[in-house]
Write a structure and sequence with these properties.
alpha/beta, Rossmann fold, binds S-adenosylmethionine
């Protein structure tokens, strides 16, 4: 088959696409995007830049990503950075080449590998985990022939595909012991809105370490973890797959032995100090903090790390503060039966 026939063949295949909101993620704001938009419309007339410094899945940044709005994303997890780069970068990429590679990767014949040895018969069946590892290994092998963005699009597709069939309730702290494992695993392309990606910046660092170096923005949106659960503990498998440096793993959930470097200050009892430092260094016309009111409602691990009084005290030193609130049932870790609570936005118009 010549290149032209192959191109035609690939394009004619009825693909389904992943959209950015398709991921299960603790603290994801997918379901309250409208509330965030309405609250911003109520308090802020005009904005051209939006810094989402704890981006997670990137759904909030995605919501505000327009041709005339520059978005800056950041997350300390490399796996999230890869996803943001795939969806928000303005690096050009060859869509046909990506489709051809997805097709090629879907048809690999898997053998045992690091991923199947670490996670087989746990989060995935042995057969599927062999395939996941084989695909990730092959992406590494083709790296020199493709661009950074193409590579990150392929890894993002892999992350979204495995999330669909993982034997979990949406995170990798634990796997379900009794369920039947799914074998219908397939990479799908991403639905990317390149038109909106103009001048965006994609970062991967501890927010407190980079805030002083980031240019002034119109809106700084903050959605830090609000309880003691470290994101690396819940998403270790995804981070491991994204980085692919095959670290030693331990325990039933096969978490990387060395996870300390990923620990967030916002999950500690001293979270308020990190928050104060961040606000102090921030340069923004408006600062918006998402913070739920879980305090003393769930178990000890799910209690909020910062009190409302502490938050308001810090924000009032920076500007005038408004609070907007909506009832919301969060996506929980499965261990705690969390009832409906208030998801709040603390909006600070800086002096
Ligand atoms: C509540 S989630 C954000 C959810 C996101 N708004 C969404 O809708 O998907 C918090 C995120 O902050 C990240 N994080 C935690 N501490 C951080 C820090 N010090 N600097 C940067 N990112 C951090 C975590 O990895 C996690 O993805």
């Amino acid at each position: 088959m010549n290149m032209r026939d192959n191109k035609k063949n690939i394009l004619e295949k009825p693909f389904e696409y992943f959209i950015i909101n398709n991921r299960r993620y603790l603290g994801s704001k997918t379901k309250i995007l409208e509330f965030i938009q309405n609250s911003i419309d109520k308090h802020i007339k005009k904005y051209d830049s939006f810094l989402d410094i704890f981006s997670g899945t990137g759904v909030v940044a995605n919501h505000f990503n327009k041709k005339n709005i520059k978005i800056i994303t950041n997350d300390m997890l490399f796996s999230n950075y890869i996803i943001h780069y795939a969806f928000f970068s303005d690096d050009i990429y060859d869509e046909i080449r990506v489709l051809e590679l997805l097709d090629y990767l879907n048809n690999l014949i898997p053998t045992d590998n690091y991923f199947s040895e670490s996670f087989g018969d746990k989060f995935f069946s042995l057969e599927v985990s062999r395939k996941i590892g084989a695909i990730r290994e092959e992406i590494e092998k083709v790296t020199s022939k493709i661009t950074k963005r193409e590579k990150y699009i392929l890894i993002t597709s892999l992350i979204y595909s495995i999330d669909k069939i993982a034997n979990t309730c949406g995170h990798y702290d634990a796997f379900k012991k009794t369920s039947i494992m799914q074998n219908d695993f397939k990479l799908k392309p991403l639905s990317i809105d390149n038109e909106s990606n103009v001048n965006n910046i994609i970062l991967n660092a501890d927010a407190n370490k980079i805030i002083a170096d980031i240019e002034e923005v119109d809106i700084l949106y903050l959605d830090p973890p609000y309880n003691s659960r470290q994101y690396i503990s819940a998403y270790h498998l995804i981070e491991n797959l994204a980085k692919w440096d095959k670290p030693e793993v331990e325990g039933v959930a096969s978490k990387m032995v060395n996870r300390k470097e990923y620990n967030s200050d916002y999950c500690l009892k001293t979270a308020i100090n990190a928050f104060g430092d961040l606000i102090n260094k921030a340069k923004a016309k408006y600062i918006i903090l998402s913070y739920s009111d879980m305090a003393k409602k769930g178990n000890d691990r799910s209690n909020a790390r910062m009190s409302d009084a502490e938050i308001i005290d810090i924000l009032e030193k920076k500007g005038k503060v408004f609070v907007e609130s909506i009832k919301h049932k969060p996506f929980s870790t499965g261990k705690t039966n969390l009832s409906i609570h208030n998801e709040r936005l603390f909006i600070c118009q800086t002096y």
